[in-house]
Structure prediction request, 597 residues.
Amino acid sequence: MSSIKMFEKPLGMRDTFPQIFEKVETVRNTGRDFLCRRGYEFIKTPAVEYFDTVGKASAIADAHLFKLVDSQGNTLVLRPDMTTPIARVVTSKLLKEMIPVRLAYFASVFRAQEAEGGRPAEFDQMGIELIGDNSVFADAEVIVTAMEILKHFGLVNFKMTIGHAGILNCILQDYTESVEQQNILRALLVSRNYVGFEEAVESFDLPKTKSDALLQFIEEAMHVKEIQDIEKYVRKNDALEYMQQLAKLLEIADLADYVAFDFTLSSHMSYYTGMLFEVFATGSGFPLGNGGRYDGLLEVFGSKVGATGFSIRVDRLLETLDGQSVERQEATVVLFEEEQFEEAIVKVKTLRAAGKQATLQLRSSLVEEEAFLAHFTEVVIVGQGDVDGE
Amino acid sequence: MNELTIAMPKGRIFDEAYEMLLEAGFNLPEEVEMSRKLMLEIPEEKIRFILAKPMDVPVYVEHGVADIGIAGKDVLLEQQREVHELLDLKISTCYIASAGLPNTTMNEIAPRIATKYPNIAMKYYKGIGEQVEIIELNGSIELAPMISLADRIVDIVSTGRTLKENGLVEYEFITDVSSRLIANPVSYRMKSDRIIDLVKRLKKCVK
Prediction:
């Protein structure tokens, strides 16, 4: 390993400079306001958790966890997602107070990176969890909220792909001959390797009816127009009815245009047990967010109530919003000489009282006056009256 | 109709893949002169080709600057990028194998493998429980056993002629390789109509 340079940060860690910070803050405030209005309450959980509890329950692969050891020798992790800590805190406390609970968060999560130096290992996520409601209406609420928040941010070109872990499992179970085969196929679908899927199906030497059905299902289920279309592959199944209901609800909410169903959708987040979805938008090469129903995760913490939610990656949201102009903030600087301090104080007070952003600066401390003043929209030099900035 | 950007590897695979696109009925110029070009616009089809080094195609696609691309399975296995693998075009078929000087065994103390594919090689030898040292080279891999840099090489073999000319023999077959159509996950959803249409048409031309 090469030696660490003085300015270097750990792999994947980033500084957020003032301009970006402001953008993130705008997203945070807009999002917070939006979610609060829908009855979601914001929550914060510790950055560090025990490996044996949150670390293990989280669906993030071990290799991506940042691990530390505390003074008692326990292994700790930096939280790799927000869903797991929230599952912990609601089962331990909040569910005793009210069911269902609606929670929201805006927090950074940590995932160690192996490839390509610059990818963020710490990034902000904004999301909601709706815990304690098993109904299809809860899932619909989450999906609608996810889409409406994106619209609220001004996003137009986005799509949501919805699948259902139960339907996929049912298909894989029915048309394969061992759990092992199911797992192989599922892993291939997670990485969306359709070529590998076909090859694997062929290599299993399944009865022709089964392998044909599998291959046909994959082709059709990727882009389902009407949910009835895949009925012929699935045993009479609650999940299918559930999805039909969900589709109807989304139609009523007038969001059907943004939705596509894909029953091959499978997530590396292994705790999704029911419907699950991914959100994509033009402007970023990577998915914007994802979500779904994760009843199984609550069970890990000893609660049997259902849960559903979504999260959006804030860095990718910013990337897709990049084209939208952000108005330059008005900023005034008040320059003064040492003996004019009193006058200067009065000046900034009036400016601030008028709602302006005003910086107070001793003129003789400036290293390069022109470069410094370029950061302001208005310059006031005490004793000289107003001088326009750039 | 959205513009579709396709990342294509330069060289032989480009010719074969381009031939397939013509056969699939895309309205493309019959002959393209692309010796020094990096981009090729086809306004009639709203298609833009980016010409890249084969190893770079998955990079462009993963980052979404190309919606789809054509990449060798060897490159996909080596880089493990987040792209959808949509179709096996069954062109430029070959395989990855280990090779070495005839009648040799691996050095017991320090078994060394020279390769352009360190990840594939490492995964293979880990999988069979061999502890080896991987030496990454960028070309002329066949040289390594001849000058005793390595006991074995791991490389793609198409006809086996290069191995033969350098006095090497094949030892273990590792995996089959052919060119694949890959897609960026976001493009796959946002431009699904165009991509599905392309896959369907190309599928008919796969031999």
User: Anything to note?
Assistant: Chain A has two domains: 18-321, 333-388. Chain A touches chain B at residues 115, 157, 159, 161, 191-196, 198-199, 223, 260, 278, 280-282, 284-287 (CB under 8 Å).
